[in-house]
């Protein structure tokens, strides 16, 4: 029996403590258990919650539908909980992927605002390359082009890059490729309506593709882009002066 608190013997035993441990040792174990429990429940709330099903009970009509947790840490054995946890991991991975937000990639500058001419990251760079440079072209008077001077017009635009995930195969692409590969297999002449997926299987395929989208957004950001919000800019004396100092 605990030497100071004999009525706490069963609690001491739960934590594997001997009867001679001080009460402070028991309290530390209880605090650690509470902290571990809070961490586990935080993980469950963050990653393992899914929209719940509406209740059929009349008293619940009009009330918001509570989310359901894919794992049950209260009523499960350790083996049951691990099985639930393993089954829920793909959904947790999909839930952890935030909605895509296009990267803010800055602006580009162009001499004429035409496609393929957005070569400069700043007005200073554009002026350094083009200010005062008249072009004789091929020597024919018609090919002469005046250089860029104060009062000339250049163009500014906002860089717009596509979501890398949009270049990945979607669920239909995956199943179509499976069908094509099956048709090309040794048993291809007997292939019919393959794969024949249930609604659950289709939903699981969408979940399985979500981490691939996150991978593409992390590692495959495109260098190519389009331009939006094009605005003309009149070159000023101040612009030219600043470009010469840069």
Description:
Helix content is 41%, strand content 10%. The protein has 246 residues and is an alpha+beta fold. The chain has three domains: 6-95, no CATH class; 107-162 and 223-245, no CATH class; 164-219, no CATH class. The protein has a three-stranded antiparallel β-sheet, with no helix packed on it. The protein has a two-stranded antiparallel ribbon with strand order 1-2. Helix 4 (123-130) crosses helix 7 (237-245). The protein is extended and about 100 Å long.
Give the assembly state of these chains: single chain
Could you state the order of secondary-structure elements as H and E? Answer: HHEEHEHEHHEH
**Residue fraction in strands:** 5-15%
Radius of gyration (Å): 33 Å
**Total of domains:** 3
**Mean of residue pLDDT values:** 86
Q: Give helix % range.
A: 40-55%
SS field, number of helical segments: 7
The profile of the biggest β sheet is: 3 strands, antiparallel
Provide the structure class: alpha+beta
Question: What is the 3D form?
Answer: extended
Quantity of strands, as a count? 5
Query: Unreliable segments (pLDDT under 50, ≥5 consecutive)?
Result: none
Task: Give the distance, in angstroms, between the N- and C-terminal Cα atoms.
Answer: 81 Å
Strand order of the largest sheet: 3-4-5
Brief digest:
The protein has 246 residues and is an alpha+beta fold.
Keywords:
single chain, 246 residues, alpha+beta, 3-stranded antiparallel sheet, two-stranded antiparallel sheet, 7 helices, 5 strands, extended
């Amino acid at each position: 029996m605990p030497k100071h608190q004999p009525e706490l013997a069963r609690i001491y035993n739960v934590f594997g403590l001997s009867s001679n441990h001080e009460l402070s040792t028991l309290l530390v174990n209880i605090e650690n258990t509470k902290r571990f429990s809070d961490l586990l429940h935080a993980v469950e709330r963050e990653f393992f919650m899914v929209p719940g099903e509406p209740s059929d009970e009349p008293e619940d009509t009009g009330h918001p539908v509570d989310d359901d947790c894919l794992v049950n840490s209260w009523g499960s054995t350790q083996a049951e909980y691990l099985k639930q946890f393993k089954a829920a991991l793909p959904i947790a991975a999909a839930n952890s992927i935030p909605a895509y937000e296009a990267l803010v990639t800055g602006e580009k500058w162009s001499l004429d605002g035409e496609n393929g001419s957005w070569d400069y990251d700043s007005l200073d760079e554009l002026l350094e390359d083009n200010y005062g440079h008249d072009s004789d072209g091929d020597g024919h008077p018609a090919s002469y082009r005046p250089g860029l001077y104060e009062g000339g017009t250049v163009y500014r635009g906002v860089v717009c890059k596509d979501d890398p995930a949009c270049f990945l195969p979607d669920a239909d692409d995956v199943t179509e490729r499976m069908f094509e590969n099956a048709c090309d297999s040794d048993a291809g002449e007997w292939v019919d309506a393959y794969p024949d997926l249930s609604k659950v299987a289709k939903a699981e395929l969408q979940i399985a593709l979500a981490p691939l989208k996150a991978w593409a957004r992390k590692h495959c950001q495109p260098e190519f882009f389009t331009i939006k919000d094009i605005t003309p800019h009149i070159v000023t004396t101040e612009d030219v002066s600043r470009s010469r100092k840069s």
